[in-house]
Design a protein that fits this description.
Helix content: 55-70%
Number of domains: 1
Radius of gyration: 13 Å
CATH topology: Rossmann fold
CATH superfamily: 5'-nuclease
Shape: globular
CATH architecture: 3-Layer(aba) Sandwich
Largest sheet: 3 strands, parallel
Number of strands: 3
CATH class: Alpha Beta
Strand order of the largest sheet: 1-2-3
Order of helices and strands: EHHEHHEH
Strand content: 5-15%
Distance between the termini: 24 Å
Structural class: mainly alpha
Protein backbone atom coordinates (compact mmCIF):
# COMPACT_ATOMS: atom_id res chain seq x y z
CA UNK A 1 0.00 0.00 0.00
CA UNK A 2 1.39 3.40 -1.02
CA UNK A 3 0.20 6.45 0.89
CA UNK A 4 0.24 9.46 -1.45
CA UNK A 5 0.81 12.85 0.18
CA UNK A 6 -1.15 16.04 -0.46
CA UNK A 7 1.62 17.81 -2.39
CA UNK A 8 1.72 15.01 -4.95
CA UNK A 9 -2.04 15.07 -5.48
CA UNK A 10 -1.99 18.87 -5.82
CA UNK A 11 0.54 18.61 -8.64
CA UNK A 12 -1.46 15.80 -10.22
CA UNK A 13 -4.84 17.55 -10.11
CA UNK A 14 -3.23 20.87 -11.06
CA UNK A 15 -1.60 19.28 -14.12
CA UNK A 16 1.85 20.35 -12.99
CA UNK A 17 4.83 18.46 -14.31
CA UNK A 18 7.01 17.35 -11.42
CA UNK A 19 9.00 14.23 -10.71
CA UNK A 20 6.53 13.18 -8.03
CA UNK A 21 3.58 13.80 -10.32
CA UNK A 22 5.16 11.67 -13.04
CA UNK A 23 5.77 8.93 -10.47
CA UNK A 24 2.11 9.07 -9.41
CA UNK A 25 1.06 8.84 -13.05
CA UNK A 26 3.29 5.78 -13.42
CA UNK A 27 1.80 4.19 -10.32
CA UNK A 28 -1.72 4.91 -11.53
CA UNK A 29 -0.99 3.37 -14.94
CA UNK A 30 0.30 0.24 -13.18
CA UNK A 31 -2.74 0.15 -10.90
CA UNK A 32 -0.50 0.26 -7.84
CA UNK A 33 -2.21 -0.11 -4.44
CA UNK A 34 -2.59 3.56 -3.47
CA UNK A 35 -4.21 5.02 -0.36
CA UNK A 36 -5.08 8.42 1.11
CA UNK A 37 -5.95 9.80 4.53
CA UNK A 38 -8.71 12.12 5.68
CA UNK A 39 -6.23 14.92 6.23
CA UNK A 40 -5.03 14.59 2.63
CA UNK A 41 -8.63 14.74 1.35
CA UNK A 42 -9.32 17.90 3.40
CA UNK A 43 -6.14 19.61 2.20
CA UNK A 44 -6.83 18.81 -1.45
CA UNK A 45 -10.49 19.84 -1.42
CA UNK A 46 -9.86 23.11 0.46
CA UNK A 47 -7.43 24.19 -2.25
CA UNK A 48 -9.70 23.47 -5.21
CA UNK A 49 -11.13 26.33 -7.21
CA UNK A 50 -13.44 24.12 -9.27
CA UNK A 51 -14.07 20.55 -10.28
CA UNK A 52 -14.63 19.44 -6.70
CA UNK A 53 -17.05 16.65 -7.62
CA UNK A 54 -14.67 15.14 -10.18
CA UNK A 55 -11.70 15.23 -7.81
CA UNK A 56 -13.76 13.78 -4.96
CA UNK A 57 -14.94 10.97 -7.22
CA UNK A 58 -11.34 10.08 -8.02
CA UNK A 59 -10.24 10.29 -4.39
CA UNK A 60 -13.09 7.99 -3.33
CA UNK A 61 -11.63 5.21 -5.48
CA UNK A 62 -8.70 4.64 -3.08
CA UNK A 63 -8.80 3.24 0.44
CA UNK A 64 -8.94 5.82 3.20
CA UNK A 65 -6.42 5.08 5.94
CA UNK A 66 -6.91 6.64 9.33
CA UNK A 67 -4.14 6.25 11.88
CA UNK A 68 -5.59 6.10 15.35
CA UNK A 69 -4.90 8.08 18.44
CA UNK A 70 -2.66 10.91 19.49
CA UNK A 71 0.52 8.83 19.38
CA UNK A 72 0.20 8.17 15.64
CA UNK A 73 0.21 11.89 14.91
CA UNK A 74 2.94 12.58 17.47
CA UNK A 75 5.08 9.97 15.76
CA UNK A 76 4.37 11.59 12.39
CA UNK A 77 5.64 14.90 13.78
CA UNK A 78 8.82 13.21 15.00
CA UNK A 79 9.42 11.66 11.59
CA UNK A 80 9.00 15.07 9.95
CA UNK A 81 11.74 16.61 12.09
Amino acid sequence: MILVDTSVWIDFFGSFSSATCRELERLLSQRAPLAITGIVVAEIVQGLRGGVEEVEAQLRSWPLLEPGGFEAYRHAAEVYC
